[in-house]
């Protein structure tokens, strides 16, 4: 005889269902500062406090635009210090904000790979590999950031032993082979972009970039795939007196400014009041899911950023977020606003900001109401105008 399931209990007889947020609970247990908002002006000055798990100093930067898919950890190694060895079942993209040192990575200690890094280096920890960071200076601290998929993994499994004490080895990503982190790689093409597949970029500020005319104003870029991870970055540079076309994508793109000065704007619908984020070197902005945003260079030199994000060109967890329509007009089913279709106030504010900074607009011929008599110049050698 089938068991009857009761669904008619009175609400006053029932216990209140308690909502649990495993990732937030884990963050609270780490005992370090947690920064929130839409952007951070300078990752180099974010407050850090002792973090027992790593044996150094740290803080969380959990911005609105992450959408719960990823996060940013700030790690600071005092002079001569090293982290505790650690492994975890979430991915980590590591960017060196300042300082120099080395990292050791292994599944088996007799196959340990060690490589050196300095300011501007970028690498990814192979999933669930054990790793340890070392500060190479006995006089100065070293500061790195790590953009991780911890929120996604902890929300799915909500079990710390699974996340931090799991013996599984992802041999399809890393086998301890010699030269894994020597900086070599292979170039691919994907849609209108070039993709550099590697495991270490010694300095993202000097890597070769390639034309990305679809994003506008003679900008250049390169997409990156690191350590066979799902998380993947890209680098983009744009000339003096120019700005990128407005666009949108999925959550979790941590836009870290490599050099230059300017601002970004965030908005959801035409006519909305835009959130303005002024930036400089080491600022970070995270646009929310499906939020239009635009990046403006108002300085005297080219500007560039590193976007550390959830989903790359090879592994795409959601085609809507990471497909090939990021630089296609919204009128054609894409996610980009062409210059001719943007609101007039956007360019007017840009020219006003340039004038206040003593800089000149170079958008002639791109925007119908541009008052400049000069068009965008080609970017020559990285960081210099041709």
Instruction: Please report the distance between the alpha carbons of the first and last residues.
Output: 83 Å
CATH C-level class of the largest domain? Mainly Beta
CATH superfamily of the largest domain: Jelly Rolls
- Provide the helix percentage: 10-25%
Overall radius of gyration: 22 Å
Specify the CATH architecture of the largest domain.
Sandwich
Number of helices: 5
Question: Would you report the number of β strands?
Answer: 25
Shape: globular
What do the pLDDT scores average to? Answer: 92
Strand content: 25-35%
Oligomer: single chain
What is the total domain count?
2
Largest sheet: 9 strands, mixed
Alpha-beta content class: mainly beta
Poorly predicted regions: none
Order of secondary-structure elements = HEEEEEEEEEEEHHEEEEEEEEEEEEEHEH
CATH topology of the largest domain: Jelly Rolls
Describe this structure in words.
The structure is a single chain. The chain is mainly β and 386 residues long. The chain folds into 2 domains: 143 residues, Jelly Rolls (Sandwich), CATH 2.60.120.10; 168 residues, Jelly Rolls, CATH 2.60.120.10. 10% of the residues lie in helices and 31% in strands. The strands form 5 sheets. Strands 2, 12, 13, 15, 16, 17, 19, 22 and 24 form a 9-stranded mixed β-sheet that branches. Strands 1, 3, 4, 5, 6, 9, 11 and 14 form an 8-stranded mixed β-sheet that branches. A 3-stranded antiparallel β-sheet has the order 8-7-10, with no helix packed on it. Strand 20 and strand 21 form a beta hairpin. It is globular, with a radius of gyration of 22 Å. 44% of the residues are buried. The model has no long low-confidence stretch (mean pLDDT 92).
């Amino acid at each position: 005889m089938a068991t009857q399931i009761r669904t008619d209990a009175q609400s006053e007889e029932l216990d209140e269902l308690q909502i649990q947020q495993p990732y937030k609970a884990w963050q609270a247990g780490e005992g370090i500062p947690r920064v929130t908002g839409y952007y951070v002006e300078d990752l180099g000055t974010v407050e850090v406090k002792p973090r027992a798990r790593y044996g150094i100093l740290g803080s969380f930067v959990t911005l609105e635009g992450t959408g719960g898919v990823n996060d940013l950890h700030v790690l600071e190694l005092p002079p001569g210090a090293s982290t505790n060895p650690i492994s975890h079942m979430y991915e980590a993209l590591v960017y060196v904000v300042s300082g120099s040192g080395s990292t050791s990575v292994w599944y088996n200690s007799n196959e340990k790979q060690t490589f050196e890094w300095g300011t501007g280096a970028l690498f990814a920890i192979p999933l669930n590999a054990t790793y340890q960071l070392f500060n190479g200076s006995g006089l100065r601290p070293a500061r790195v950031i790590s953009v991780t998929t911890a929120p996604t993994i902890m929300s799915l499994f909500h079990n710390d032993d699974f996340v931090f004490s799991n013996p599984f080895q992802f041999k399809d990503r890393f086998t301890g082979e010699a030269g894994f982190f020597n900086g070599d790689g292979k170039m691919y093409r994907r849609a209108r972009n070039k993709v550099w597949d590697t495991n270490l970029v010694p300095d993202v500020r000097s890597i070769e970039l390639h034309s990305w005319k679809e994003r506008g104003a003679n900008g250049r870029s390169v997409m990156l795939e690191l350590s066979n991870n799902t998380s993947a970055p890209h680098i983009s540079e744009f000339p003096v007196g120019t700005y990128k076309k407005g666009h949108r994508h999925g959550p979790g793109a941590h836009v870290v400014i490599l050099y230059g000065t300017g601002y970004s704007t965030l908005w959801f619908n035409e006519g909305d009041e835009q959130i303005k984020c002024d930036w400089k070197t080491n600022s970070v902005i995270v646009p929310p899911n499906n939020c239009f945003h635009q990046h403006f260079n108002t300085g005297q030199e080219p500007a560039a950023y590193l976007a550390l994000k959830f989903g790359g060109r090879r592994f795409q967890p959601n085609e809507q977020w990471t497909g090939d329509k990021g630089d296609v007009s919204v009128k054609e089913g894409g996610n980009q606003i062409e210059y001719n279709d943007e609101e007039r106030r956007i360019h007017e504010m840009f020219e006003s900001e340039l004038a206040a900074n003593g800089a000149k607009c170079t958008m002639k011929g791109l925007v119908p109401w541009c008052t400049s008599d000069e068009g965008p110049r080609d970017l020559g050698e990285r960081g210099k105008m041709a």
